[in-house]
Design a protein that fits this description.
- By secondary structure, the chain is α/β, with parallel strands linked by helices.
- The protein has 2 domains: 204 residues, Spore Coat Polysaccharide Biosynthesis Protein SpsA, Chain A (Alpha-Beta Complex); 87 residues, Serine Threonine Protein Phosphatase 5, Tetratricopeptide repeat (Alpha Horseshoe), CATH 1.25.40.
- 45% of the residues lie in helices and 19% in strands.
- Strands 1, 2, 3, 4, 5, 6, 7, 8 and 9 form a 9-stranded mixed β-sheet that branches.
- Strand 1, helix 1 and strand 2 form a beta-alpha-beta unit.
- Helix 5 packs antiparallel against helix 7, helix 7 packs parallel to helix 8 and helix 8 packs antiparallel against helix 9.
- The relative contact order is 0.11.
């Protein structure tokens, strides 16, 4: 039976939080969905938990796919994508969860705006005891590929619904990408295929931000994203501009990513590491004023 939505969760050793994610799906007011849970090589009690929940919620179309070896986040998601039957595919990371009206609101938007291929929404960002609304910007559909490439990623995977046929046509997520850049690359490739985007300006889900080696994580992720950006920048057509001007423009884009990394490190109290990253931005784009200001703020401890 084909559903309107195929919801996909790839989980690896998620025994501490997978139940909350699953129950946020089965509690949806919109019931026209299949739920594909990919046990991505878990070695803890995840397998037992999801099987028990499948039995408990046997009125729902819940499918479990068990992988013997972990295929990474892209491989896990792709496993679900390639067996999905729904018109639209939604992703829910195993440690995130949704509001119970999420699918209903997204469905109404997709029915109303028939030209839209990718729909996203705001989320609550949960970090420890704090909660704030993560507001993501809209994508300019006049040239969504250029917009996403030049202005950066503004989509959260657990908040995205995408036409199944379209994401299948690009082969899903690139399984060679393993440092958190795979989602951004996927949105860029969808945009290059002509996808149109829509942002629901309301938090319909909860993104749980977990602490784990802040410095190394942000730097490694930034390096990976920059490699993706460099590859896609080769596809842009700067009509009438000299090679020198194009190089300066591209360098400023790369510097912006290093600045954002430096800002995140600085906000986490890692001022020394933040300054190193700000200086890296300045070696690429010497007059990038935001990086200069960032260094000064760190020196003054503002």
């Amino acid at each position: 039976m084909e559903h309107f939505f195929s919801v996909i969760t790839s989980v690896y050793n998620g025994e501490k939080y997978i139940q909350k994610a699953i129950e946020s799906v089965v509690c949806q007011t919109e019931k026209d969905f299949e739920y594909i849970i990919v046990d991505n090589g878990s070695t803890d009690s995840t397998s037992d938990i999801i099987k028990e929940l499948q039995k408990k919620y046997d009125k729902f179309d819940i499918k479990i796919i068990t992988l013997k070896k972990n295929k990474g986040i892209s491989g896990g998601r792709n496993t679900g994508i390639f067996v999905a039957t729904g018109e639209y595919v939604c992703f829910l990371d195993a440690d995130d969860y949704w509001r119970d009206d999420k699918l209903s609101i997204v469905k109404n938007v997709l029915k109303e705006k028939e030209s839209i291929n990718v729909c996203c929404h705001w989320e609550y960002h949960i970090k420890g005891e704090s909660k704030e609304i993560g507001k993501y910007r809209n994508v300019d559909n006049q040239d969504p590929y250029k917009d996403l490439l030049l202005k950066g990623n503004c989509l959260s995977t657990s908040a995205v619904a995408v036409e199944r046929n379209l994401i299948n046509s690009i082969g899903g997520f690139d399984e060679k990408l393993t440092s958190g850049e795979e989602d951004y690359d996927c949105w860029l490739r969808l945009a290059r295929q002509g996808a149109k985007f829509y942002m629901i300006q309301e938090p319909l889900g909860f993104w749980v931000i977990r602490e784990n080696s802040v410095s190394a994580k942000h730097i490694k992720h930034t390096e990976a994203v920059i490699e993706v950006v460099k590859e896609h920048l080769n596809n842009l057509d700067y009509v009438g501009l000299s090679k020198e001007t194009i190089e300066k423009k591209n360098n400023k884009i790369i510097a912006r990513y290093w600045f954002a990394c430096g800002r995140m490190l600085s906000m986490a109290g890692k001022r020394r590491e933040g300054n190193k990253v700000y200086k890296k931005a300045l070696t690429i784009s010497p007059f990038y004023i935001k990086a200069i200001v960032g260094i000064l703020f760190n020196i003054l401890h503002i």
